[in-house]
């Protein structure tokens, strides 16, 4: 007689209350990166004035965060495969916490940028370990449902972060934003230490040292489809970060909006992103991940071209900018879950390392896109050029390198993945 719990993943065997607490903490870990990136966006013009620097220099502090997120995942992913999940996680959050404290007293933009790199390193540990823990605890449909919820967190956090940042600026200066981030890091560290178990048993850990890690990364780079898929995810992320890095200047400086008005505009784009990621779950009942990814990239390319034209011509005023921009973000919300899911389904034997390389490419390409908007002029045309360029490159890589029509129709991994 088959036991009633046969075939269940380790997470499903946990008591419901404990499972709920673990999932809640995983959601907090997933939120740390978006909060770190987005909470200080309304204060970018204020930082520019207070530190007597340029918009491009301040945008480099955002780039520093993305560089830290990219490099940190490459470092923490293999460490978590070799030494377990808890200690790399707690160590990374501690780095984030200390960097946040020193950001409060940063005397110039160079110091602030360096500290933002360290914040990114710490947030990377939370992102990659959260995904690895999901892979440890849940499989198949259970993992798909949890990844869907984590995608919701990834979407909600960018809505709340600029709003919180705008509220903080009502009471204090931009430095107060980093006080709030310090409190967030302390809270997440405490609940992670209390609630999260070690999910990778010693017998399942990979013992190859530095050479083993290099071999794992080398093996990933030999998979043309995997490399193409992570590039698609990264280039779609570039379009998103062009919006993230340029929007405060476009809407606050260009259109004269207050911090609170900008937060509402930013929230509108995030709503489209969230809605698309959750609608993706319904679409997957009828279409494959590769079909949804391909269609969303083509649609995003078209909307990106419309955005570029309206930005150059000024047609439609503010609405002519916002509507195609929000539609691009919605298509990114469809592409981002499916490209990573397809990529990770190919390398389940080294989930932490594969997820780390995926996250590194996403944030690494985003790190290049963020300052590019400033270099091109910080206005709506500069933002539109980078957004359209990201969607064009992602579409070309999808159809020329990945060739989704040649992929098998069934994907064994969850088709809804968390974006780091």
TrEMBL record:
<feature type="transmembrane region" description="Helical">
    <location>
        <begin position="89"/>
        <end position="111"/>
    </location>
</feature>
<protein>
    <submittedName>
        <fullName>MFS transporter, DHA1 family, bicyclomycin/chloramphenicol resistance protein</fullName>
    </submittedName>
</protein>
<dbReference type="InterPro" id="IPR036259">
    <property type="entry name" value="MFS_trans_sf"/>
</dbReference>
<dbReference type="InterPro" id="IPR011701">
    <property type="entry name" value="MFS"/>
</dbReference>
<feature type="transmembrane region" description="Helical">
    <location>
        <begin position="225"/>
        <end position="244"/>
    </location>
</feature>
<dbReference type="GO" id="GO:0042910">
    <property type="term" value="F:xenobiotic transmembrane transporter activity"/>
</dbReference>
<feature type="transmembrane region" description="Helical">
    <location>
        <begin position="20"/>
        <end position="37"/>
    </location>
</feature>
<feature type="transmembrane region" description="Helical">
    <location>
        <begin position="264"/>
        <end position="283"/>
    </location>
</feature>
<feature type="transmembrane region" description="Helical">
    <location>
        <begin position="57"/>
        <end position="77"/>
    </location>
</feature>
<keyword id="KW-0812">Transmembrane</keyword>
<feature type="domain" description="Major facilitator superfamily (MFS) profile">
    <location>
        <begin position="22"/>
        <end position="407"/>
    </location>
</feature>
<dbReference type="InterPro" id="IPR020846">
    <property type="entry name" value="MFS_dom"/>
</dbReference>
<dbReference type="GO" id="GO:0005886">
    <property type="term" value="C:plasma membrane"/>
</dbReference>
<feature type="transmembrane region" description="Helical">
    <location>
        <begin position="117"/>
        <end position="138"/>
    </location>
</feature>
<dbReference type="Pfam" id="PF07690">
    <property type="entry name" value="MFS_1"/>
</dbReference>
<keyword id="KW-1133">Transmembrane helix</keyword>
<keyword id="KW-0813">Transport</keyword>
<dbReference type="InterPro" id="IPR005829">
    <property type="entry name" value="Sugar_transporter_CS"/>
</dbReference>
<keyword id="KW-1003">Cell membrane</keyword>
<feature type="transmembrane region" description="Helical">
    <location>
        <begin position="321"/>
        <end position="343"/>
    </location>
</feature>
<feature type="transmembrane region" description="Helical">
    <location>
        <begin position="150"/>
        <end position="171"/>
    </location>
</feature>
<comment type="similarity">
    <text>Belongs to the major facilitator superfamily. Bcr/CmlA family.</text>
</comment>
<feature type="transmembrane region" description="Helical">
    <location>
        <begin position="381"/>
        <end position="402"/>
    </location>
</feature>
<keyword id="KW-0472">Membrane</keyword>
<dbReference type="InterPro" id="IPR004812">
    <property type="entry name" value="Efflux_drug-R_Bcr/CmlA"/>
</dbReference>
<feature type="transmembrane region" description="Helical">
    <location>
        <begin position="355"/>
        <end position="375"/>
    </location>
</feature>
<feature type="transmembrane region" description="Helical">
    <location>
        <begin position="295"/>
        <end position="315"/>
    </location>
</feature>
<feature type="transmembrane region" description="Helical">
    <location>
        <begin position="177"/>
        <end position="196"/>
    </location>
</feature>
<dbReference type="GO" id="GO:1990961">
    <property type="term" value="P:xenobiotic detoxification by transmembrane export across the plasma membrane"/>
</dbReference>
């Amino acid at each position: 007689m088959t036991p009633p719990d046969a075939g269940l993943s380790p997470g499903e065997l946990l008591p419901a209350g404990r499972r709920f607490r673990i999932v809640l903490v995983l959601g907090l870990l997933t939120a740390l990166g978006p909060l770190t990136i987005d909470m200080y966006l309304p204060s970018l013009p204020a930082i520019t004035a207070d530190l007597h620097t340029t918009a491009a220099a301040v945008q480099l502090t955002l780039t520093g965060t993305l560089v830290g997120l990219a490099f940190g995942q490459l470092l923490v992913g293999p460490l978590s495969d070799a030494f377990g999940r808890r200690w790399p996680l707690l160590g990374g959050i501690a780095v984030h916490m200390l960097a946040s404290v020193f950001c409060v007293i940063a005397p110039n933009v160079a110091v602030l940028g360096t500290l933002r790199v360290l914040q990114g390193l710490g947030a990377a540990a939370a992102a990659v370990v959260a995904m690895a823990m999901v892979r440890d605890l849940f499989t198949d449909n259970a993992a798909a449902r949890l990844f869907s919820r984590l995608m919701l967190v990834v979407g909600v956090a960018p809505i709340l972060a600029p709003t919180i940042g705008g509220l903080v600026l009502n009471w204090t200066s931009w430095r107060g934003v980093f006080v709030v981030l310090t409190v967030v890091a302390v809270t997440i560290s405490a609940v992670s230490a209390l609630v999260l178990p070690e999910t990778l048993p010693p017998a399942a850990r990979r013992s190859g040292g530095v050479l083993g890690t290099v071999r794992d990364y080398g093996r990933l780079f030999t998979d043309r489809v995997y490399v193409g898929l992570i590039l698609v995810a990264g280039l779609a992320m570039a379009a998103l970060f062009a919006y993230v890095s340029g929007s405060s200047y476009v809407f606050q400086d260009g259109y004269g909006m207050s911090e609170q008005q900008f937060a509402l505009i930013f929230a509108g784009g995030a709503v489209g992103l969230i809605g698309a990621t959750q609608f993706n779950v319904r679409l997957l009942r009828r279409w494959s991940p590769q079909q949804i990814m391909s269609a969303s990239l083509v649609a995003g390319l078209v909307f990106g071209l419309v955005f570029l034209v309206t930005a150059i011509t000024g047609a439609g005023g503010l609405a002519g900018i916002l509507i195609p921009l929000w539609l691009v973000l919605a298509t990114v919300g469809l592409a981002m879950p499916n490209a990573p899911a397809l990529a990770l389904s190919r390398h389940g034997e080294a989930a932490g390392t594969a997820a780390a390389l995926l996250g590194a490419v996403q944030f690494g390409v985003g790190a290049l896109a963020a300052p590019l908007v400033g270099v091109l002029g910080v206005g709506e045309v500069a933002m539109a050029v980078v957004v359209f360029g990201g969607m064009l490159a992602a579409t070309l890589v999808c159809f020329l390198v990945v060739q989704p029509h040649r992929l098998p129709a069934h994907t064994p991994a969850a088709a809804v993945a968390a974006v780091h």
